[in-house]
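Board notes (copied after class):
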Amino acid sequence: MAKRRISAGGGASHEIHHFMGTQSTRRGCRLTMSIAEGMLSSKREILIRLLRVKFDAVPETTVQRVESISSTDELYRLLEKIIHANSLSEMGLDGAKA
């Protein structure tokens, strides 16, 4: 983002520059958070889809559990685990965990 300088005398230009930088940083943080949440959401959807393909009936409690996962590492772990797991229980997704 281009830095804007408004000459109003004294320290006003510095204050406006700081404000504009802060606003830009906030927008950048919001965008980064939106992208990260979108990636998490996609991984959750993929995991749920794979669970349904592999195990047919997936209880709503398991779907809710997956939808509540906020760790990319945990989602990757489960996505890898589905390859060898023979049941939701082996994956730790049998509904017992909250």
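Comment from the instructor: Helices lie at 12-55, 60-67, 72-81, 88-91. The chain is about 65% helix and 0% strand.
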